[in-house]
């Protein structure tokens, strides 16, 4: 299909390499509560950016600040080098897909999508053309004459996307747009949204509390907690190289050990000495290992630095088997993820085994940071 | 289903019709009430308006004289237009005040404070209507609060009689009396509104006022129409307020009806009442379309 719903007019003005959106020292207070604490953030032009975190972490506040629905208490917001935090929402080249979709129930789908163009005074013929393109982009060409109430949840969501994109914004803000949908539909729309993003090339800023959603869609993710950005990076970096216990815990599953670092060795609480990759500053720290990085075997044949333990329970989960292992080195049982086809090597319950991992799979976290 | 029904024998059909009749039985009290207290009196008024009075007695002789008489007296016709005008202005201002109030209440007031505020708006209803109207005499009168305040501040030295006994005084009191009706009705329809829609409209380029006009107002139109009906219709028939605070300068069509009946000119009074009723009926027919669009929005 002919896709012309690109932010052509604005994109040509943009200088390459310049940050799309920039937050500089932004703080937002509601009364005595600090929703956002001196946040500096750069979102690149054209990227699919996720703000990820638990409720109350400040991700929606960040989105509302960019959209202009609230103003910063301190700091400034810039869009392609232009300061926008003093502009009202309707004067910003930014459009939003709301969590509730916020479609106008008294208008047809076509009028909903065309609303923004009508507000801009776009000529009828051109507006009609652009509405058609936007509806085609989300695969709803034949639904223009229906009312929102006559559409399914997924279709309503698509209308909301079309309505926001038809204005060819420099930035599209999405506030948990898939939150109200069931899992299967959500996964399908995740793929559709990334395809739409590729086709229009607009910067997407996507808010979600669902780490899997963020991982599957985003170019880069900002993990937020208690009003600050805990870590910013690609899904791979955030999963493999978390910089705080909060991020490690929030993204995927993680096993934690309280350790004492001694040069290039970490001493677990049961006395086991495990090798580390590279030398670290000595002292107490937290060691994090992902469940799929753990190996299980007989205590006799285990390599040096293996942690002795006892298999407590194993659960078959289809693609993988999860084994809970009780050890003296951690308070809660370790979670070990084994390949689902490795059924024969799954230890029996109460079997005495050992657990070990490759040094490069163990992440040393500063134990003072990111306690959740 | 319809095919089967046509071939059903009559006995069978009767057995089906009887329960159908029986199912209407619970409505009997409503039918009796509506018939006895509404339709029958209305029928009497209709008949009266086409009869005539001879020596203070109603004579059953059909005539159009009552209507002829009303339209032949300039003062009456002028009162009719004035009544329409006063009702329109009072309704307009009442809704103009009630809408921002309802908007503010449902958007900016925390949920726990809304009920107390609504109760405050309704508190005047706990006192009698007459008392509420009379209390305005003590505010607007020659020795009323307003005059005393103006004299105290030195803005005037003599009491101003202007505040009372004219149409503006009537309109002011009518607004006061009917504000709660409009506020409650509008609040109940604005309350359920999804405010994200206004944010979305502004996000798409609408000004705050434009968003309210294009998004909120069309969706609460049934509530607005209901408020207009609740305020405009009773005001059309008002007679105590114009009598008490309006005096001779604030006469409305309701006062004419009262005057006619007090003078034993029942048939002329009936004709005027019916004119009001016909006008209201016309208005309701006009509004019917707006009210039925409720379904089109999917509730």
Structure description:
The complex is a heterodimer of chains A (372) and B (299). Chain A is of the alpha+beta class. Chain A has two domains: 8-240, Rossmann fold (3-Layer(aba) Sandwich); 272-365, Nucleic acid-binding proteins (OB fold (Dihydrolipoamide Acetyltransferase, E2P)), CATH 2.40.50. Chain A contains nine helices and 20 strands. Chain A has helices at residues 8-13, 59-67, 109-119, 124-137, 153-165, 183-200, 211-217, 235-240, 245-250, and strands spanning 19-30, 33-44, 48-52, 74-79, 82-83, 94-97, 171-175, 203-208, 220-225, 228-233, 255-262, 265-267, 273-275, 283-289, 295-298, 307-316, 320-327, 334-339, 352-356, 362-365. Chain A has a six-stranded mixed sheet with strand order 6-7-8-3-9-10, sandwiched between helices. A five-stranded antiparallel sheet of chain A has the order 13-12-11-14-20. In chain A, strands 15-19-16-17-18 form a five-stranded antiparallel sheet, with no helix packed on it. In chain A, strand 12 (265-267) and strand 13 form a beta hairpin. The longest helix of chain A has 18 residues, at 183-200. The radius of gyration of chain A is 25 Å and the shape is elongated. The two termini of chain A are 48 Å apart. Chain B has 299 residues and is mainly α. Chain B folds into two domains: 1-49, no CATH class; 67-297, MetI-like fold, CATH 1.10.3720.10. Chain B has 15 helices and two strands. Chain B has a two-stranded antiparallel ribbon with strand order 1-2. The longest helix of chain B is centred in the first third of the chain and has 35 residues, at 74-108. The radius of gyration of chain B is 25 Å and the shape is flat. Mean pLDDT of chain B is 85; it is low at 1-5 and 294-299. The A-B interface holds A 67, 69, 88-90, 94-96, 98-100, 102-106, 115-116, 119-120, 147, 149, 163-164, 167 and B 194, 196-197, 199-207, 210, 214-215, 218-219, 296-298.
């Amino acid at each position: 299909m002919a896709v012309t719903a690109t932010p052509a007019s604005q994109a040509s003005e943009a200088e390459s390499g310049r940050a799309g959106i920039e937050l500089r020292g932004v703080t937002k207070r509601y009364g005595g509560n600090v929703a956002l604490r001196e946040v500096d953030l750069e979102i690149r032009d054209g990227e699919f950016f996720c703000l990820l975190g638990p409720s109350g972490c400040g991700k929606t506040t960040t989105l509302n600040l960019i959209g202009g629905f609230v103003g910063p208490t301190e700091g400034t917001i810039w869009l392609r080098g232009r300061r926008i935090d003093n502009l009202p929402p309707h004067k910003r080249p930014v459009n939003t897909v709301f969590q509730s979709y916020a479609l106008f129930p008294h208008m047809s789908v076509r009028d909903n999508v065309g609303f923004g163009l009508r507000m801009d005074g776009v000529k009828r013929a051109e507006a009609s053309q652009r509405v058609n393109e936007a509806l085609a982009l989300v695969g709803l060409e034949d639904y223009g004459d229906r009312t929102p109430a006559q559409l399914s949840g997924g279709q309503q969501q698509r209308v909301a996307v079309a309505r926001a994109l038809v204005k060819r914004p420099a930035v599209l803000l999405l506030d948990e747009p898939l939150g109200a949908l069931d899992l299967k539909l959500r996964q399908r729309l995740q793929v559709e949204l990334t395809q739409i993003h590729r086709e229009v090339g607009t910067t997407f800023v996507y808010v979600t509390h669902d780490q899997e959603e963020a991982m599957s869609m985003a170019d880069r993710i900002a993990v937020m907690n208690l009003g600050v950005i805990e870590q910013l990076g690609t899904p791979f970096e955030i999963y493999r190289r978390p910089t705080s216990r909060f991020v490690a815990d929030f993204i995927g599953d993680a096993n934690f050990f309280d350790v004492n670092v001694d040069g290039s060795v970490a001493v677990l609480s049961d006395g086991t000495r495990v090798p580390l990759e590279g030398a670290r500053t000595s002292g107490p720290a937290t060691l994090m290992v992902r469940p799929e990085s753990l190996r299980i075997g007989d205590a006799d044949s285990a390599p040096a630095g293996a942690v002795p333990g006892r298999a407590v329970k194993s659960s078959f989960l289809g693609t993988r088997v999860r084994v809970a292992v009780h050890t003296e080195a951690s308070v809660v049982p370790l979670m070990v993820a084994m390949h689902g086809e490795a059924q024969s090597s799954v230890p029996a319950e109460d079997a005495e085994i050992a657990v070990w991992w490759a040094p490069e799979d163990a992440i040393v976290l500063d134990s003072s940071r990111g306690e959740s | 289903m319809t095919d089967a029904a046509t071939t059903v024998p009559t006995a069978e059909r009767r057995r089906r019709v009887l329960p159908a009749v029986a199912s209407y039985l619970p409505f009997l009290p409503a039918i009796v009430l509506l018939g006895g207290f509404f339709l029958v009196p209305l029928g009497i008024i209709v008949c009266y308006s086409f009869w005539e009075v001879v020596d203070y007695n109603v004579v059953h002789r059909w005539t159009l004289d009552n209507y002829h008489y009303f339209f032949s007296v300039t003062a009456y016709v002028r009162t009719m237009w004035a009544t329409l005008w006063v009702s329109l202005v009072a309704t307009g201002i009442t809704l103009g005040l009630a809408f921002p109030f309802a908007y503010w209440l449902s958007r900016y007031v925390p949920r726990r404070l809304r009920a107390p505020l609504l109760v405050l708006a309704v508190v005047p209803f706990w006192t009698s209507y007459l008392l509420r109207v009379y209390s305005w005499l003590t505010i607007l009168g020659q020795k009323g609060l307003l005059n005393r305040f103006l004299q105290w501040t030195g803005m005037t030295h003599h009491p101003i009689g202007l505040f009372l006994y004219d149409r503006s005084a009537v309109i002011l009191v009518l607004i006061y009396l009917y504000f709660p009706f409009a506020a409650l009705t509008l609040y109940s329809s604005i309350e359920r509104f999804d405010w994200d829609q206004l944010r979305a409209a502004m996000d798409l380029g609408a000004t705050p006022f434009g968003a309210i006009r294009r998004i909120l107002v069309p969706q609460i139109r049934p509530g607005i129409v209901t408020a207009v009906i609740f305020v405009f219709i009773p005001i059309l028939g008002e007679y105590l307020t114009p009598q008490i605070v309006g005096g001779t300068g604030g006469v409305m069509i309701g006062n004419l009806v009262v005057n006619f009946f007090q003078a034993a000119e029942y048939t002329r009074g009936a004709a005027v009442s019916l004119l009001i009723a016909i006008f209201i009926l016309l208005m309701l027919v006009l509004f019917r379309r707006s009210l039925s669009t409720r379904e089109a929005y999917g509730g």
